[in-house]
Amino acid sequence: MGPFDWLPHAPLEPLRLDWLSGVELAVLRLDRIDPLISGNKWFKLTGHLAQAQNARGIISLGGAYSNHLHALAAAGKRFGFPTVGLLRGHPQDTPTVLDLKAFDMHLHWLGYGGYRARHEPAFWLPWREHYPHLHPVPEGGGGLAGASGCGVLVEQARAQLQALGWADYDAWWLAAGTGTTLAGLVLAEAGAHPVYGALAVPDDHGVAQNIGAIVQAGYELLDASRGGFAKVDPVLLDFIDTTQQTCGLPLEPLYTGKALMALKAQVEAGRFTPGTRLIFVHTGGLQGRRGFTG
User: In what order do the strands lie in the sheet with 57-62?
Assistant: First the structure.
């Protein structure tokens, strides 16, 4: 399968919000790259697809609201390769799952215990036997292959700085779910600019370990999970609504909403002085808002 030379372009836009208090913020809009294959997921997939040229399709795993599986299934539908999804929990028809079916992804529900075994060394053996012609991709498109595909985001952002009137920037800020995109930015920056990751999941989800297996320095992780992955509260939802009303930026409550809210807290705490220039990565995932009210 492949090779795939589709490389979408993410616009870099200024973001004006009162609470920035002199901090300058631009948002790299990965949510705008494509109506279906949205966000950081395609960039993470590119490295894995490059390794899958001798395969006929892709098998991967995620939950019932998985942005990764959604992007993978949409890519398979568009580019004509089969996809298989291994899902956490028991059968349910979320808007995301209905899309997976519409995109012709073949689904297997693993239960919760079965899904927890995904880190076991022998996890993939029966699936490789059942689907010998498919290339396995880890949860969220993670690993070095996934991180390497995200390096182009640094190039895309730097190419648009002049249009903002910026000669340079001071740091990156983004949500971290597996840490793969963050690791890719750190690799591409090679120490030039720090990368801040707002953790959308608790410490026990292994994000620090995932990142540490790829890069050892050049980043900082901050808790933004607000009690756990997919934990949503009225304050967060109000922040998301207010942000969209104020500047037109749509956010979702699992990743981007929590990440930008965590940045607000850090700005208010004085971490970033007026004049600091930050790039916030909108990692997409807006499809996951459907049917999700918290």
Answer: 106-109, 83-87, 57-62, 134-136
